UniProtKB/TrEMBL annotation:
Phospholipase/carboxylesterase/thioesterase domain boundaries: 9-211
Protein family: Belongs to the AB hydrolase superfamily. AB hydrolase 2 family.
Protein name per its UniProtKB record: Carboxylesterase
Domain of life of the native organism: Bacteria
InterPro entries associated with the record: AB_hydrolase_fold, LYPA1-2/EST-like, PLipase/COase/thioEstase
Lineage: Bacteria, Pseudomonadati, Pseudomonadota, Gammaproteobacteria, Aeromonadales
Ribosomal protein found in the keyword field: no
Annotated source species: Aeromonas cavernicola
One Gene Ontology molecular-function label: hydrolase activity
Amino acid sequence: MIDLFPTGARHAVIWLHGLGDSGAGLAPLVEALTLPAERPVRHLLPDAPERPITINMGYKMRGWYDIRSFDNPADRAVESHVRESAARISALIDQLVADGFAAERIVLAGFSQGGVIASFTALRYAAPLAGLLCMSTYLAAPATLAAEITPAARALPICYMHGIYDDVVKLAMGWDAKNQLEALGLSLEWHEYPMRHEICQPQLADIRRWLLTQLTD
């Protein structure tokens, strides 16, 4: 795990990468945000474990969970793997709190698979967090969310971002997540970009603005 811990940091962001990537793969994004030095932020970029991924012919790669198929929503994310990964990230939040970072100063952010784990974790975390940032992603186990969402998560600042031409996680999957969250009474900021399954330059400016809004004392 990459841990960028500047002196004086009181806020933290946990960044969760996509399938086949690593924490190091998101490090350039963090650098590109050029957050102000006078507001130091700790950035943690953990690595998913290596596991066989069914849709990639069973090849082993870093993945927060197995994807059996995109045809059936239940097969997009193996729920037992999702819960294992979410428990790991919850423990990481707990460790940050033990290190002196208040939960309300911690943001969870993720791209693609990482966004699935970020949303699953944040919406079920008992303490209020600073925010949830989801990029090019969807919801796992949405049928359980109404019963498992915590009172703290109902006021969670949420931002979803998606590419209009995404051919890996279709825009409709992002919209489906948005609609399901709104049906539960949650409000979220939504952005679409003329891009595929990636992160574009205009998006970086929106991420920076949103983060600075959430990471305040």
